[in-house]
Amino acid sequence: MIDLKSVSLIYQDHGKEVFACKEIDLGVQPGEFLGILGPSGSGKSSLLYVMSGLKVPTKGSVEWLNRDLGKMGDQERADIRLREFGFVFQYPFLIGYLTALENVLLAFPAEDRRADAEKFLIELGLQDQMHRYPYQMSGGQKQRVCVARALLGSPKVVFADEPTAALDHKSGRAVMDLLIQNRGQGALVVVTHDPVMLEGADRIIRMEDGEIKN
Amino acid sequence: MEGANKVKSKLGATVYLRRNLGKTMPLIGVIILAVMLIAGIVSLINSIPLSIKTIYSYSRNYVAVTPRGNALLTPLLRKSIEQGSPVEIDRLMVIRGTDIEVKSIVGNWPFVVLGLEQSDMDYYLMRMKAKVLNGRKPAVGEPEVMISEKLARNLNLKLGSVIQKPTDSDNYSPQEVKVVGIADSEFWFAFGSVEYQRENHFPPIDALLVFAKNPTDQKKLDDWTTATLKGENARVFTYQELENQADTMFNILYQILNVVIGTLVVVITLMMGMLMNIFLSQRVQEFGLLQALGYTKRSLIMRVFWETTVFVVGGWVLGVLVAWGLLNIVKVTLMDPRSFALDTFDQWAYLYSLPVPIAIFAVSILTVFAKFKNFDPVGVVERRLV
After folding, report:
1. Where are the domains of chain B?
2. A95 contacts B8? CB cut-off 8 A
3. Is the minimum CB–CB distance between B24 and chain A shorter than 8 Å?
4. How many Å lie between the alpha carbon of B358 and the closest alpha carbon of chain A?
5. Inter-axis angle of helices B218-229 and B239-281, nearest 10
């Protein structure tokens, strides 16, 4: 479904090339739970952003359903992110002036998915927070709203970048369980430095200095 | 369905503005104040030439011809007009005139008290579309005047008030001249007995008022009289000339006004530009998140475009309404009681304020373009930019 072929992501740092990802070959299969483990600065987040089309690799290619993401225009790549992918980021980013329900519906700007969104929020235990604004919610509740946003519309792949980093262990575990249980047929790619959060993963790869080590 | 529609419009142009009133209202307030300030200043400045044109608008109804220093010229001028007029003349009055002063927002202006024959007074009132409200017409040879209601208001005169007197050098007459009649008219006027003026006022020279039979021909008569008689032997007074003089007089003032308003627009725009920059910087997280989720730069720019449009158009419309409201208050409380002219629907005043929203809109959109040019949503979701 996603195929990375000799992918490198290179930054320029004071005229010096720094490899965030180096010559990576990797595939993600439909429905797979892939864990990407590594210490801070190992390049695991960069890899996730390249896989999801948020960054274009400097070298190599990332194919989504046999189509090179790097050769697509911004509009097409954005459409894929919006329609086919779901995202959960390290911090529970929500738009402050929208309610929890409205934030979830951001994933479908042109469609009325209110019933689906409400159902998701109820399943995630947020029935009382549905019409609250982010400032009225705890960190864990906000991240659960982000999970609902990522899962709305049953995306083919959910990308989660350190989704538990800003939460305590218990809340983090709860968020991971929600992601795993509610992703349906979609693949799940989770980046973390905490191996405990990858319990139940179909496959775990380890990153170090921009390279896959196992 | 109502709920669904509400959710569907979650990123509509007004959602951010409505739900962040603490941030948007001060910005809209600046636009309102700027528009109000500019429209107010321009309206008040425009009220000066408007006052001139209003006070002296009686001259739309006739052309006045005054011989230069020689009383014997009057009959000759009369003959020339009667024989050469290109349009049919309805009435040619032989009159006298003395000066009084009327009040304006920029000081006192001269105004003429006509001396009319008794037989001309009714015709004069008819051409001034006047209706006598109180009192009567001035009697032959008596120190009396009939004035229009607007003039009465301007000088705070009532029946029996003295309009000219021996001790008032600006409103001089050897005897106390009293108001004996007040007439309602759109025009300002004052007339007394020509016999009284001939007896008491200098110079001893009769002037002429010439009325075209058809009021629509008056301008043609004015133009012909100016072209034929104005010069060494006569002065010719027409409304057209008054209007031209007023426009010329205010031309430089308007140029200065343009510079002042231009500067004001630049200052306000710079200030608003900086505020908009801060305003948009506070939303970097929102834009980064939306872009990361799959919203295109174009859709986000369009969103800001529509928000800014609603914001500046709304601010301008509110500014115009507030300016209109305040000008009406000024008109009712300060201008009308003194018969000062003020057009609260002065379209130029409101058009002058248009550069404010246009400039703010342009700065806002350019700011957004600059911000999005190299915008990296990953920087936001990794919290490097927020």
Report:
1. 13-53+246-381, 69-230
2. no
3. no
4. 27
5. 110
